[in-house]
Amino acid sequence: MPRLLAMLDLDALFRPDSRTSGWRRMPAVAGEAMIATSHPLATAAGLEAFAAGGNAVDAALAAAVVLAVAEPTDNGVGGDAFALVWRDGELHGLNGSGRSPGTLDEVRVDETGPRSVTVPGAVRAWADLAERFGRLGLDRPLGRGAELAARGVACTARIWNKWATDPAAPFPAPRVGERFVIPDLAATLARLAAEGPDALYRGSVAEAIAAVSWLEEQDLADHRSEWVEPLRLDYRGVEVCELPPNGQGGAALVGLAVYDGLEPGLHSQIEAMKLALADVYAHVGDAPWPEALLDPAHVAARRALVDPSRAIDPTPSVLPRGGTTYLCAVDGEGTAISLIQSIFGNFGSGVVPSGTGVVLQSRAGGFVEDEGHPNRLGPARRPFHTIIPGMLLRGGELLGPFGVMGGAMQPQGHMQVALRLVDEGDDPQAALDAPRWRVGLGREVALEPGLWDAEDELASLGHDVRRANVQHPFGVGQAILRLGGALIGGSDGRGDGYAAGL
To answer: Which of 146, 384, 395, 408 could form a disulfide with 319 if both were Cys (CB 3.0 to 4.6 A apart)?
Structure first.
């Protein structure tokens, strides 16, 4: 008897499996434009925007709004967004993160609930990107998003798994393949399409947000995005670009800088990243990037701590979780965008203002309470942020956007994908499909099944090796490279989406 979908062992989708063909998944190739996302509806929306005459930013915004509906576990109108945009030979950075309340009653960090909410910055960031770089405006994708939320989205296995295993999910979990609708979110998106982004930050929606969180209406009215100067590191002839604080993108650059000069291999990669995470989590907050972290003398001193014969213990006492969506796009004129958005934990704070369908993010859970720490909770401050978009340049020209979502995995994923692209010469799909490691606390390192053959060697060096039993903690990535006259793209098999172009 055939094994029909209704009889499928869904848990098997999230267990290691050696029954693959052993052959490569081919990268996407296009001559004009390309978009890569974690959900098929989002990629399709991006292609539709291209076909309507939009550029890479328009395609990315179309996809971003769809993802806010199709992946409600990870991102949405109630979250934040960051972006890197390459346009006319210049790189632009956008920090779309929100702040804590302007007035605090006490310094207490909650991971979920009303006191974990910060001002949602994604909608304002979308509007700023559309205004500065787009052609089609934001009302079009917002209107399409409203239609999708009202019509319903067939739930993928990945989203079902994250949704069904969250006991605090604010909406009932759909089954795999079942259409879920969020009518209140549809109404909010339709209102934003008609009235513009101010409809989130002022009026009845802002009032509803303030009514269920520690934010005040003025906190929302005061919110603005910030255009910032990206951080850059030359790694073996390729310029790796990240956003400055309050994000953790600098950790990817510090990790690459420390690794460059070490004996190549997994042990050196893991140790370099542990040192980078320790540096960034100790010194980064809502303040300018501490330039000393990439100073050659500091990098050399950190590199000298790496012992080729044993593992060290420099990681922080806590590593952040995360629920995030990443996408990228490149058009025929050479404009490229790397965009990431998130509500932090699974379903963020778990708080949904009445009548809005908007799940508010839990980014205030990223603050610390420690006196004197640069990331200490304070009035109108932005928390240490996990979400980071990446961009690669070579010889002053665009190579392409890339990113890997997933809490503390993000700088680790950026480093590993960059190493695969630069050191190994992988195409984007191969780089994303490659097995990953994930640094934990102390000497802990988790290995995906493709790296299990390195377990004994790493354990002999003192690493606390764990065999991963689910793929979610290793993130989902996307990447597009411009090589000659063509675009070569990839979409992480750990997600649901694909890369496609015109």
So the answer is: 408
